Amino acid sequence: MDTFVEVATLLPYGIENTSDIFSEIHSVFSQTEHNIVAAYLITAGVVSILSNIIVLGIFFKYKELRTATNAIIINLAFTDIGVSGIGYPMSAASDLHGSWKFGYVGCQIYAGLNIFFGMASIGLLTVVAIDRYFTICRPDIGRRITGCHYTAMILAAWINAVFWSVMPIVGWSSYAPDPTGATCTINWRRNDMSFVSYTMSVVAVNFVVPLMVMFYCYYNVSRSMKGYGSHSLGGCNVDWSDQEDVTKMSVVMILMFLIAWSPYSIVCLWSSFGDPRKIPPAMAIVAPLFAKSSTFYNPCIYVIANKKFRRAILSMILCKSRQEVTLDNNFPMSISQCTLT
């Protein structure tokens, strides 16, 4: 793995048969290294699917958890299951095979769905930050936010994801196997104007802007929490004795967002303004793996950190009946608690 990705050369523009592209792609990794990646993907996929199914099961079992705010978390769980249930198995199978094994159509489906669920996840995390800002820092506005507003914000996140995932299929950039040869993503080999413009737009709209929004929201949330302390929030009967934990969680959310998506953004920018052949193989494979890792740590950060969910999860593990469980009414991260019907 000390050599660079020499295979990532610019393909001749005369190649029109897509099968030629796949025949010229050869992995720079040994089969042992592919097997290690496959083992990671299988393990992470199983953990992610099970944890997110538990999240959805909790919402199904406890009606009081079906709030407008938590509708965002439900959608986030579906994005995680989408990546884990579709992306992980195809990638793991290709790693075990030693190269991409699902052909051109499979490459388009795999890459498109991964971009789709990834962009949707980023958009939903941004909606979570906006919701917490309004409900904690601007409760006068937060109290006026209805289920329709939440539906509109969630739909905006999904529509944004559809747009960016479809563009490479219709001609703005393209999808192709990456230099590892065992997975598909944006075609780094043709870093022409189409690739550069698409990449810069994606990084700006789906990384820089969400990061700025989350930082602004969580920074103000932290300041507001320190100001409220254990007092009620804007006249609402909510105990904020856990405000220190909330502040720490806000910082963790930003850090995990950076850890997950920074390597992928760096590789995209490197491909746009540098030589794709000089991208180290380790970075080429670590970047998408880090981005996908959000599928199994999201449940921990956004759900298990909530005391109400911790009680619900514990009751499910202990097989308690619905009548035996009394959930706390306080949400440590949000006060948007109107139950969805």
Automatic annotation (TrEMBL):
Keywords: Chromophore, Disulfide bond, G-protein coupled receptor, Glycoprotein, Membrane, Photoreceptor protein, Receptor, Retinal protein, Sensory transduction, Transducer, Transmembrane, Transmembrane helix. It holds the Pfam family 7tm_1. One of its GO terms (biological process) is visual perception. CDD domains: 7tmA_Peropsin. It is a multi-pass membrane protein. It is found in: Membrane. Residues 51-302 form the G-protein coupled receptors family 1 profile domain. GO terms for cellular component: membrane. The chain crosses the membrane at residues 37-60, 72-89, 109-130, 150-175, 195-219, 251-273, 285-305. GO terms for molecular function: G protein-coupled receptor activity; photoreceptor activity. InterPro entries: GPCR_opsins (IPR050125), GPCR_Rhodpsn (IPR000276), GPCR_Rhodpsn_7TM (IPR017452), Peropsin (IPR002962), Retinal_BS (IPR027430). Belongs to the G-protein coupled receptor 1 family. May play a role in rpe physiology either by detecting light directly or by monitoring the concentration of retinoids or other photoreceptor-derived compounds. This is Visual pigment-like receptor peropsin.
